[in-house]
Write a structure and sequence with these properties.
- This protein is mainly alpha-helical.
- The protein folds into 2 domains: about 100 residues, Orthogonal Bundle (Rna Polymerase Sigma Factor, Chain: A); about 130 residues, no CATH class.
- It is built from 10 helices and no strands.
- Helix 1 packs antiparallel against helix 2 and helix 3 crosses helix 4.
- It is globular.
- The N and C termini lie far apart (about 55 Å).
């Protein structure tokens, strides 16, 4: 039995012995997650390309699902898919920020003696898959707003300036991106040159913390020339 299901079973037994009225609610939460799990695992594996890391993401998604006020969730499956996408992308980003794969040919001046050639290849491919997913699923403006807000925590006013939008519209772009990622619908054609350019900018930003190149690429793809930073 999976770890999260074993914990749920233990929690249910404890609740039953104490006549806790939340037993039924816990059963429902487990049932919802079990039904969604195959799709969540496919999403995580598509982004990460690693079965163990994908399982870790699913485990974290379960823990977050447990701590969520599920009475406020209108679409549990959509929430779980969005959470899984965000967690998987965070894994890719954090791995690069820890210099686990900094021997990429796009970052030739950075070296990590502990990174094996296989690790470098795996991390590079993981980033490429994550970026491809975003490019296939989101419009340029949705992609820019989502990456900068969810991936790097940029303030909405800064993103609005970059994309020539109002702050309210920028928030809508992020919300729409989350919704589209949650549906799992893909199919938008992706230009290989644009894909490589965004991958390089993403890696540079994740590794160095300097977002200037990423901001330029995203805003240009969205058809807006960003204002110069002071």
């Amino acid at each position: 039995m999976d770890t999260y299901l074993a914990r749920a079973a233990q929690g249910r037994e404890t609740a039953m012995t104490t006549a806790d009225p939340t037993v039924g609610e816990l059963d429902t939460a487990v049932s919802v997650f079990v039904r969604a799990r195959p799709g969540l695992l496919r999403i995580a594996h598509r982004i990460l390309g690693n079965a163990n890391e994908a399982e870790d993401v699913i485990q974290e998604a379960w823990l977050r699902w447990q701590s969520t006020d599920r009475t406020l969730v209108a679409n549990p499956s959509a929430l779980l898919r969005t959470t899984t996408v965000r967690l998987a992308i965070n894994v890719v980003q954090s791995a690069w920020s820890r210099r686990e794969s900094c021997a990429s040919p796009w970052l030739p001046d950075l070296a990590d003696d502990h990174a094996t050639p296989q690790a470098v290849i795996e991390r590079q491919e993981a980033v490429e898959r994550a970026v491809l997913l975003l490019m296939e699923t989101l419009t340029p403006r949705q992609r820019a707003a989502y990456v900068l807000r969810e991936g790097f925590g940029c303030p909405y006013d800064r993103i609005a300036e970059l994309l020539c939008l109002s702050v309210a519209n920028t928030r809508q772009q992020v919300a729409r991106a989350q919704q589209r990622l949650a549906t799992g619908r893909r199919g938008q054609p992706v230009d290989s040159v644009a894909h490589r350019r965004l991958v390089q900018a993403f890696l540079t930003a994740a590794h160095s913390g300097d977002l200037s190149c990423l901001e330029r690429v995203l805003s240009r793809d969205a058809g807006c020339t960003p204002a110069r930073s002071a």
